[in-house]
């Protein structure tokens, strides 16, 4: 989930003003207040939102102006409407140094009560800043959530979570059904061979088959490689065997890995991509404008695609395998944690519990996102289609690969994988560098325990 939350530094400069302007109450986001008793079923107690005692909470996020920021504002507005005694100050922090600011605030004692936290290994890296949720957030609210395991020690499903997930996210493909029809592509490709055949037809019909670029989401000028890498790995390993990439039982430069990434790298030569995969900055617009037939992206852009393309857009599982893929990236990518330094932990816990309520789910869904609640549905038809990959089609849900492998390996992959698709680096060399990064990790960072 490190993905789309890496924005250009220039955008960060205007974040605070933009978020402050989006409060539906007419106040700034840092002045949100409330107006009626709670019906969320959250726990009450000393300093809690349900006790009637006046409480002011501070919530930090690094969402900028994306849909997650809208969902957070929706949650605050809905919660404070039900809790007239609670004020929640929203503070938008710059994305590029968010975690440094969070650590510094913990040392100085000036931090927020609630902080956005990425899940997976990011949660474990910063868990010393967070309060375990069991005993604060009611058990029935925790039991409703779908992705809590990715916020516990060693990702134990029975562990004590540090983060309440905000939403279910997908790394996923989107395609233009009209483009497929005009090009004579009768079915969504499910293997490499089917994809290459579809690319030939789409290119002949005048479309860019799959458009790549940075999508306006990364700090650099290259696309984020972990969307695709997730599906290359789904094609190679079971979800349980992904741990092998963490502990070294499967080397990044093993023959199977090299062969899989060589096939991925061949997309450009086979005409499946735009020529400027490493530098294109308007790839999302090419898909929105109908110039490109497919794009690999995520749920944070679903609403944008359905607003522009209506029922012409649908989701597909990127077919980066010689045989049909049986998995999909469905993962709780981020959420909210209660800081150790908070003086209002129970009140903060009440807000987190609200996320699991019907009103909380509605607040998330109305922002175009998928609530991370078991059995939840969503009003966006393409988001709902994604949920059905698992619930109806029997696919296995996988985490986001960049959230369950070591950060040092991710950092090297960010540098060496884009040129593999661009054609300037061969797969064996790039994967060798990633394997070297793994070899240089501290021993406890490449054990059988996620840390």
Number of helices: 18
CATH topology of the largest domain: D-Maltodextrin-Binding Protein, domain 2
Helix and strand content put the structural class at alpha/beta
In percent, how much strand structure appears in the residues?
A: 5-15%
CATH homology-level superfamily of the largest domain? Periplasmic binding protein-like II
Total number of strands: 12
CATH class descriptor of the largest domain? Alpha Beta
Low-confidence stretches: 1-46
Order of helices and strands: HHEHEHEHHEEHHEHHHHEHEEEHHEHEHH
Approximate helicity band:
25-40%
> How far apart are the first and last residues' alpha carbons, in Å?
17 Å
The general outline is globular
Radius of gyration: 22 Å
Number of domains: 2
- Average pLDDT works out at 89
Question: How does this model look, in words?
Answer:
There is one protein chain. Strands 5, 6, 7, 8, 9, 11 and 12 form a seven-stranded mixed β-sheet that branches. Helix content is 37%, strand content 13%. The protein has two domains: 9-166 and 333-374, Periplasmic binding protein-like II (D-Maltodextrin-Binding Protein, domain 2), CATH 3.40.190; 170-331 and 388-403, Periplasmic binding protein-like II (D-Maltodextrin-Binding Protein, domain 2), CATH 3.40.190. α3 (67-82) links the parallel β1 (55-61) and β2. α3 runs antiparallel to α15 (358-365). It is of the alpha/beta class.
């Amino acid at each position: 989930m490190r993905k789309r939350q890496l924005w250009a530094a220039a955008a960060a400069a205007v974040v605070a003003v933009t978020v402050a302007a989006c409060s539906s109450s007419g106040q700034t986001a840092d002045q949100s207040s409330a107006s009626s008793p709670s019906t969320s079923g959250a726990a009450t107690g000393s300093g809690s939102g349900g006790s009637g005692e006046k409480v002011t909470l501070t919530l930090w996020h690094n969402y900028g102006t994306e849909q997650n920021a809208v969902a957070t504002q929706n949650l605050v507005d809905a919660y404070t409407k039900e809790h007239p005694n609670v004020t929640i100050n929203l503070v938008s922090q710059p994305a590029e140094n968010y975690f440094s600011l969070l650590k510094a605030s913990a040392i100085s004692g000036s931090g927020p009560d609630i902080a956005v936290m990425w899940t997976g290994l990011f949660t474990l890296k910063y868990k010393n800043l967070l309060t375990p949720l069991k005993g604060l957030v009611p058990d029935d609210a925790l039991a409703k959530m779908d992705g809590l395991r990715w916020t516990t020690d060693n990702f134990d499903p029975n562990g004590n979570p540090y983060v309440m997930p905000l939403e279910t996210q997908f790394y996923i493909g989107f395609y233009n059904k009209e483009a497929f029809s005009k090009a004579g592509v009768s079915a969504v490709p499910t293997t490499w061979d089917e994809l290459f055949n579809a690319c030939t037809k789409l290119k002949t019909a005048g479309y860019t088959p799959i458009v790549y670029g940075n999508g306006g989401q990364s700090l650099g000028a290259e696309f984020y490689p972990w969307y695709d890498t997730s599906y290359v790995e789904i094609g190679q390993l079971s979800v349980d065997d992904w741990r092998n990439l963490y502990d070294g039982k499967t080397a990044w430069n093993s023959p199977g890995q090299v062969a899989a990434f060589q096939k991925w790298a061949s997309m450009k030569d086979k005409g499946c991509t735009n020529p400027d995969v490493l530098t294109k900055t308007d790839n999302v617009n090419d898909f929105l404008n109908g110039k490109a037939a497919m794009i690999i992206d995520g749920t944070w852009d679903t609403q944008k695609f359905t607003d522009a393309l209506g029922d012409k857009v649908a989701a597909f599982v990127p077919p980066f395998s010689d045989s049909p893929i049986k998995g999909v990236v469905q993962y709780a990518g981020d959420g909210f944690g209660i800081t150790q330094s908070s003086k209002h932990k129970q009140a903060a816990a009440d807000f987190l519990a609200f996320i699991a309520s019907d009103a909380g789910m509605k607040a998330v869904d109305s922002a175009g996102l998928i609530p991370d609640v078991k059995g939840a549905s969503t009003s966006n038809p393409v988001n709902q289609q994604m949920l059905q990959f698992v619930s109806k089609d029997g696919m296995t849900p996988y985490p986001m690969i960049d959230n369950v492998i070591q950060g040092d390996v991710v950092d090297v992959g960010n540098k060496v994988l884009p040129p593999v698709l661009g054609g300037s680096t061969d797969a064996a060399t790039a994967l060798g560098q990633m394997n070297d990064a793994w070899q240089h990790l501290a021993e406890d960072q490449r054990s059988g325990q996620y840390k």
